[in-house]
Amino acid sequence: MGSAGRLFCFGFGFSAEALARRLKKDGWTVAGTCREDGRRAAMAKLGVKAYPFDSAHPLDDAANVLSSFSHILVSIPPEAAGDAGHDPVLRHHRDHLLAATPSLKWIGYLSSTGVYGDAQGRPVDEAWPCRPTSTRSQRRLEAENAWHALARRPSLLPVHIFRLAGIYGPGRSALDSVRAGTAKRIDRPRQRFARIHVDDIAGVLAASIARPHPGAIYNVSDDEPAPPAAVTEEACRLLGVPPPPMLSFAEVSKAMSPMARGFWRDDRFMLNYRIKTELGVKLLYPDYRAGLKAILDAGG
């Protein structure tokens, strides 16, 4: 990836940590925000400096902090209320980011494929119109738009939008739900969901950092959207246990939270051509079978 840079992460969660681990191998300096003492200790073990930040507490000395980094990753979700597209980073630090423009080479905003809404099973690429069906996804789209606007004149911040499919990885996969006895098989085979291994998210972000294209939007998903029941069955096969009974969606949906019902309401077949053609990405785990096997082989 060339000379080492300096990455600041607003929100140091699952995806940000995967990217940090990758970049630090190449000599990058990485820092990020967190809200919990336990998370701060985990960051320290990785050699990642932690800064306190949340919607009520902006960064201290933000102008100097942000101007000292070359790359910014934003993985904090939008809030239920507030201006700047409900985004706490923009609400507190939009002007600081604009002032830091000369030193910034790349900004990545982690969004969700939920912004597309319901495509009734049709293939969805980045040109598909966004018609979110939930308030949560609508807020996400508003935050996206607020960030994307900064990539246009007069701001010209190097903003890139990444619409992530369902994230899984070590400690967060169907293997864990099967072991915990919480896995379910729901009978809705025609509805397929996209997913992406966290290490492939890191790979896409690293590829974008190496080939920046301000204003770009990327779908980040694997090659094989699949029914959740199929993923559960594969996890059971790998673990050598019988799959849980198949449940009727009509019955299960009665006990679902509004968020879960919204998840099942939207049906789209995600396409990921752009990360391959523009960024040259070759996925480590092109489908859930490869991803689950790798997690299990690594002891996860």
Could you please describe the fold and organization of this structure?
With 300 residues, the protein is an alpha/beta fold. The chain has twelve helices and 13 strands. The strands form four sheets. Strands 3-2-1-4-5-7-11 form a seven-stranded parallel β-sheet, with helices on both faces. Strand 2 (29-34), helix 2 (37-45) and strand 3 form a beta-alpha-beta unit. The longest helix has 15 residues, at 135-149. The protein starts with 5 loop residues before the first strand and ends with a helix. The model has no long low-confidence stretch (mean pLDDT 93).
Key structural traits:
single chain, 300 residues, alpha/beta, seven-stranded parallel beta sheet, two-stranded parallel ribbon, 13 strands, 37% helix, globular
Secondary structure blueprint with pairings:
Blueprint (H helix, E strand, L loop, with lengths): L5 E5 L3 H11 L4 E6 L2 H9 L3 E4 L9 H6 L3 E4 L13 H12 L6 E7 L10 E2 L10 H15 L9 E6 L1 E3 L5 H7 L4 E3 L7 E3 H13 L6 E4 L7 H12 L6 E3 H4 L5 H8 L3 E2 L2 H5 L10 H10 L3
Parallel strand pairs: 1-2, 1-4, 2-3, 4-5, 5-7, 6-13, 7-11, 8-10, 9-12
Low-confidence spans: pLDDT under 50, at least 5 residues? none
Distance between the termini: 29 Å
In spatial order, strands of the major sheet run: 3-2-1-4-5-7-11
The helix count comes to 12
Query: How would you state the average pLDDT, rounded?
Result: 93
Helix content: 25-40%
Number of strands: 13
Sheet with the most strands?
7 strands, parallel
The secondary-structure element order is EHEHEHEHEEHEEHEEHEHEHHEHH
What structural class do the secondary elements suggest?
A: alpha/beta
Estimate the strand proportion: 15-25%
Shape: globular
Overall radius of gyration:
19 Å
